[in-house]
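Assemble and predict.
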Amino acid sequence: MTETMSPQSPQSPQSPDTTLGRTREGIAERLAQDLEDGFVVNLGVGIPLSVPKFVPDGVEVFLHAENGVLGMGPEAAPGHEDLDLTNAGKQPVTLISGASIVDSATSFAIVRGGHLDVTVLGALQVSADGDLSNWYVPGRNPAVGGAMDLVAGTPEVWVVMEHVDRLGRPKIVKACEFPLTGKAVVTRVYTDLAVFHLVDGELVLKECAPGVSPGDVRERTSAAYREDLGA
Amino acid sequence: MVDKVRGDVMATLEVVPSGASIAVGGFGSSGRPDTLIDALCDMDRRDLHLIVNNVGNDFTGIGRMVAEGRVRRLTASFPVLPEFYDVYFAGDVEFELIPQGTLAERLRAGGSGIPAFFTPSGAGTMLADGTFPLRYSEGSPVEHVTAKESRQFDGREHVLEYGIVADFGLVKANKGDPKGNLRFRLSARNFNPLVAMSARHTFVEVDHLVDVGELHPDDIHLPGVFVDDVMLASKTSPKQPAMAEAMT
């Protein structure tokens, strides 16, 4: 597989350690514990799509899809696909009881107007200031969809991603190298190693994954941050 | 008596010249007006400025227009089709990439008498700062999308976006009546009502033509005032299982 990001020595000191911390599904499971009953949530592609199966019993979450679906259920079962009912990834989905459908302008009024509670999305990089890069790797084909609207309008923008890239380079950085999706928009970061919150514009380490030490996180993070690990 | 129903698709589309700006509904293939798109291809219209969310991932619909070299400029948020990027990087097509919510609102605004508006979407990014390549030549960008004016509201940066008034609109609906009143089905609604609002002249293809009065006034998603011509879609909608049909 070719690596198209900026060249860097493969002898990076922080090579990915697949045995340390949470799995990709585990990251989604950890995030799902923080969703509250009644939240209206938009999920991006990738790890975020694993979040719904980990929503705790008794917590009702309404899923929004940018193409105008509010109250999206699971993907349609084989033989029951309806191409007039799809998600943002163009996959046939279902509706839950209480769902509604709107046009694209109203869908993004929901987004920009701050009517979603949380947007969950993946990232290439997150900066110490909460800047997000997740839409475009220069040299590849540019496309943005609703990502810039979602991060601009949602009060809580939660990133789920692996802590380092495939070459072991930190993805939580001083300043994003990739083109920005939005400035100072991220409010939380969930990775295989840790949970960070942005508190009054400051990046704060709130939690290490089981078996992960603050030192493990420190040596795999290039952004400056404060530790507030509680008890 | 107003009767917007037309029997001959090609004769109805004859007023669309090559070089026109055309807004098109649909999200991927969901709610995409393929009958009208295919007719414009069969009529050999070229040099078109298309305003549409996606190109798609195959050579149907907008993908067919791109593959046949009919597009001069694309205004979109998520093209996908690799062959579109081939012609963009080759300098054969101009590409104005905009956030999806901005596309929807620009169509709505243009059709609503709002010439421009401020939005936070895209502020501080290369889609607003004048660095996104509009056009390539010999492998290098030779023209960029114009930098957007910005202004602070409540301490946040917003960018100025202009309403879109397209020459023509292509729309897909589930039901339409002779007055042009429309109902859409599930998420196939997406950009379709906004396209109809944006365009000076809107063509609609419907799965079902119904009589006046059959659509209750409370249940009309888009009134016929935004619609000029209604035709029957030659392709029926994708598979509609009984359960989903019951929700229409």
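Residues 9-115+163-245 of chain B form a domain with the Glutaconate Coenzyme A-transferase fold (CATH 3.40.1080.10).
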